[in-house]
């Protein structure tokens, strides 16, 4: 699924990427077999036309290329494919956020419907896409172009493929069953991640995740490291994280706490409550100590001009939800770090 989305992204900037086309033309299924795809590639090469412009010309005037005949279904599917692709290209040329660009790909190419054809793997694959969207959002915040984003991913993939035998092994807890290692790291022990948000309303599913956590812990022969984040970038914004309930079930006698003093003050690992307060959900709430107000116009050096939609207090201090011009989703910024200018 990650390679599928990256292939769609490559087609936005490169007309001649035949591999990206061949990967995406049948997502979802459009009735193009290997023989037909090979003929399309041969004819585009023969005529010296990059694959996407060639397909557009073929769609508009099939008689120009009598060597290949598409049936009615293939013609309609090709037309829809190109229509969606060019619509997404127009959005890309408008410099929308990378995460929004991926969301449009999912919608216009009906990719999630395609994934739902396999309900067993759907949730895991959807989470992988969500992680890609998060990475894309971070790239956008760093003023990274789509070309640079794709280049960095390609370099990272090459490093993984060329990894030596003594490299770290990254796997899911399910895939770790039956294996043992000298040292194991289990990351992301946070509420809504582990246990997953979709499991929280089912005691049976919570128990299953608890057993899975046990499986992960018992993979370690000598050293076991368990980590969680104080905050996490998810779904287009920074979210404060609560330690997983599973951490509180561990016997403190066997745990060496490696948290920094800041982290220890930030929350109590083993107490009944976290030491920070959750963000208020009441959009009309404004802290009495707030220096910002709802509706106020501000400027950020990266995101530009925006309007304050919500003001609240977290353990990090005064926090704002801001809708910036040209964006369709809110960004959460802590005022003492954000360096905002009031307009």
From TrEMBL:
Keywords: ATP-binding, Helicase, Hydrolase, Nucleotide-binding. SUPFAM superfamilies: P-loop containing nucleoside triphosphate hydrolases (SSF52540). Residues 1-178 form the UvrD-like helicase C-terminal domain. Gene3D superfamilies: 3.30.160.800, PCRA, domain 4 (1.10.486.10). GO terms for cellular component: cytosol; DNA helicase complex. PROSITE patterns: UVRD_HELICASE_CTER. InterPro entries: DNA_helicase_UvrD-like_C (IPR014017), DNA_helicase_UvrD/REP (IPR000212), P-loop_NTPase (IPR027417). CDD domains: SF1_C_UvrD. GO terms for molecular function: 3'-5' DNA helicase activity; ATP binding; DNA binding; hydrolase activity. One of its GO terms (biological process) is recombinational repair. This is UvrD-like helicase C-terminal domain-containing protein.
């Amino acid at each position: 699924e990650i390679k599928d989305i990256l292939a769609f992204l490559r087609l936005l900037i490169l007309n001649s990427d035949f591999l990206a086309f061949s990967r995406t033309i049948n997502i979802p299924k459009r009735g193009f077999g290997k023989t037909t795809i090979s003929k399309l590639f041969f004819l585009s090469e023969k005529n010296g036309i990059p694959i996407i412009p060639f397909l557009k010309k073929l769609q508009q005037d099939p008689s120009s290329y009598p060597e290949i005949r598409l049936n009615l279904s293939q013609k309609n599917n090709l037309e829809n494919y190109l229509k969606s692709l060019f619509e997404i290209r127009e959005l890309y040329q408008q410099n929308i956020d990378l995460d929004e660009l991926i969301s449009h790909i999912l919608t216009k190419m009906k990719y999630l419907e395609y994934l739902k054809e396999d309900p067993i793997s759907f949730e895991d694959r959807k989470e992988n896409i969500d992680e890609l969207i998060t990475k894309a959002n971070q790239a956008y915040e760093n003023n990274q172009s789509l070309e640079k984003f794709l280049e960095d991913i390609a370099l990272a993939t090459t490093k993984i493929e060329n990894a030596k035998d003594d490299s770290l092994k990254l796997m899911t807890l399910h895939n770790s069953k039956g294996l043992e290692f000298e040292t194991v790291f289990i990351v992301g022990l946070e509420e809504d991640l582990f246990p997953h948000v979709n499991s929280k309303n089912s005691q049976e599913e919570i128990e299953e995740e608890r057993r899975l956590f046990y499986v992960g812990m018992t993979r370690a022969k000598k050293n076991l490291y368990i980590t969680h984040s104080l905050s996490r970038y998810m779904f287009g914004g920074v979210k404060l994280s609560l330690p997983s309930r599973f951490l509180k079930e561990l016997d403190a006698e066997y745990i060496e706490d490696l948290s920094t003093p800041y982290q220890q003050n930030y929350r109590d690992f083993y107490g009944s409550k976290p030491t920070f307060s959750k963000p208020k959900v009441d959009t009309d709430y404004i802290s009495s100590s707030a220096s910002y107000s709802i509706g106020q116009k501000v400027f950020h050096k990266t995101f530009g001009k925006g309007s304050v939609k919500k003001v609240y207090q977290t353990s990090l201090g005064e926090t704002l939800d801001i809708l910036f011009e040209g964006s369709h989703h809110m960004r959460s910024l802590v005022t003492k770090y954000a360096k905002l200018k009031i307009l």
